[in-house]
Design brief:
It is built from 11 helices and 9 strands. The chain is globular, with a radius of gyration of 19 Å. It starts with 18 loop residues before the first helix and ends in a 24-residue tail after the last helix. The relative contact order is 0.16.
Length: about 300
């Protein structure tokens, strides 16, 4: 079904070179049991501390916002950056929530709107390409979604095999299985079999299988054409969704949007433009909770200078 070996726990993970990894996972587990308001405050503090050290990431965040929202005032942008830094730290805790919280606790904190769209497609036996974005709380969103409608994840194995084991176990806890991100045949088969496949086409994945399409104020954002390939080959439904934290008290809403019925078929360039519009809508549900520290516009058309 996939090109990677399902990770299992190995005795070699007890070697000293993995002690820091085991310590990190252990801390994530223990902290996931803390009251939410404590996790929230700790997350904010960690985010602010980390960004003081990772200055390049902080600059990338600022530059992305300048490129996407050139008309935003300096005061508005500074406030958005401050909130985004807080959410970056909180992401560590939200990942722990996703991997270790019991189902009842997830259900208490996460409300799902729009699940009827998924149920209708399920009755039709239609495969669904779920268009995700890299929000800071995506892991928790995937866990909550999977509890109601299990799906299949597109997966990039972590370079650290010990961490990869815990990451894999956390992600399949309420979902079915994972497909390597390079395993296109596996994705096609899953969609043809009527599965729901998680797919995040919002990052810059390089020139291979890509085109340039507008994203916010950036006219030429390197955008994968993989979405078009998967949809055209399977005639699956395309359904965007996003996860939004509604308040500091830990209430989340997972929003499932109606299927994109006007998706341009057999036209990868038009499809990239269309899907980027859907991505913009998802991001704007909570722009301060999006992963702006990724160098989204690092790949430029031939002859154009770097935007960073």
């Amino acid at each position: 079904m996939s090109k990677f070996t399902v990770p299992t726990f190995k005795k070699s993970f007890l070697h000293p070179r993995y002690w820091l990894t085991l310590l990190l996972v252990g801390v994530m587990y223990l902290m996931s049991w803390l009251p939410y308001f404590i996790q929230f405050r700790l997350g904010q503090s960690i985010g602010r501390l980390v960004m003081r050290v990772m200055k390049k990431r902080a600059k990338t965040m600022k530059r992305n916002l300048e490129l996407c929202f050139p008309d935003m005032s300096e005061e508005e942008r500074a406030e958005l950056i401050k909130k985004n830094i807080d959410n970056t730290g909180l992401a560590l805790f939200e990942t722990g929530m996703a991997w270790f919280w019991p189902d009842l606790r997830v259900e208490r904190h996460v409300q799902i709107d729009g699940l009827e769209h998924i149920r209708k497609l399920e009755e039709q036996g239609k495969g669904v390409l779920l268009i995700a974005i890299h929000s800071m709380n995506l892991e928790l969103g995937a866990r909550a979604f999977g509890m109601k409608a299990p799906g299949v994840g597109v997966y990039r194995p972590n370079n650290n095999p010990c961490f990869d084991y815990f990451q894999f176990e956390g992600r399949v806890r309420s979902n079915k299985y994972m497909i390597d991100r390079k395993d296109v045949k596996g994705m096609l088969k899953a969609l043809r079999d009527g599965e729901r496949v998680w797919y995040a086409p919002d990052h810059d994945y390089g020139r291979r299988r890509s085109t340039f399409a507008p994203l916010f104020a950036v006219e030429k954002a390197c955008t994968t054409t993989g979405t078009s390939l998967l949809v055209d080959a399977t005639d699956c439904a395309v359904v965007p969704f996003t996860m939004v934290r509604q308040s500091d008290s830990g209430r989340y809403t997972l929003k499932v949007f109606p299927p994109l019925d006007e998706f341009p078929h057999d036209d990868p360039d038009a499809a990239a433009v269309y899907i980027n519009k859907a991505i913009e809508r998802s991001i704007m549900e909570a722009p301060d909770q999006y992963m702006w520290l990724h160098r989204r516009f690092k790949t430029r058309p031939e002859g154009e200078p770097s935007l960073y």
